[in-house]
């Protein structure tokens, strides 16, 4: 019986190569410019897209070469990856699922996960339960990372200034673990508060 678990090399730390991920547009294996998530050193490797090397408005696409097949409601797997949106302009990273027909026709498929913004240089954990929203079991699907940049946003910064990184993709059987993440967009600070003599050291702020 074939299950989604049979996909070879869906997991990748990019230390040796791009594994089974195909850099269709814009994505490259990069090393020596930024500390990767695997080793924490600039000598490590990761997948990256530099928008300065692309035409304005271009989509950068990184696709799994082989399709997966979802057989039943019990066939649930957790895709996890670490990413950075190190960009001066609004930038998105999304994960799409393509049917074989969409894959053959070059269509983007359906978006199932996305983050957007200019997040800075910290690594963020991304998660997607591959079978969480699918109902058409037995169909083959391709995984596709797409990254775009909003070049229409008015800014004093030159367009296409930014880099998106992805590293340490893992794929495990079962549901994704619950991860509590605070983006500090909410003034309540997710329950975080300063303690000690100098409580004014930590404040919620914005660059806007």
Shape: globular
* Main β-sheet description: 6 strands, antiparallel
Based on DSSP secondary structure assignment, what is the total number of beta strands? Answer: 11
Helix and strand content put the structural class at mainly beta
Give helix and strand order, one letter per element, not per position.
Answer: EEEEEEEHEEEE
What does this structure look like?
It is built from 1 helix and 11 strands. With 208 residues, it is mainly beta. The strands form 2 sheets. Strands 1, 4, 5, 7, 8 and 10 form a 6-stranded antiparallel beta sheet that branches. It is globular and about 55 Å long.
What's the helix and strand layout?
Layout: E1 21-25, E2 27-31, E3 45-50, E4 60-64, E5 68-69, E6 77-87, E7 91-99, H1 100-105, E8 110-117, E9 124-129, E10 140-149, E11 162-173
Antiparallel strand pairs: 1-4, 2-3, 3-11, 4-10, 5-10, 6-9, 6-11, 7-8, 7-10
Top keywords for this entry?
single chain; 208 residues; mainly beta; 6-stranded antiparallel beta sheet; 38% strand; globular; disordered N terminus
Q: Can you summarize this structure?
A:
With about 210 residues, the protein is an all-beta fold. The protein has one helix spanning about 100-105, and strands at about 20-25, 25-30, 45-50, 60-65, 70, 75-85, 90-100, 110-115, 125-130, 140-150, 160-175. It is globular and about 55 Å long.
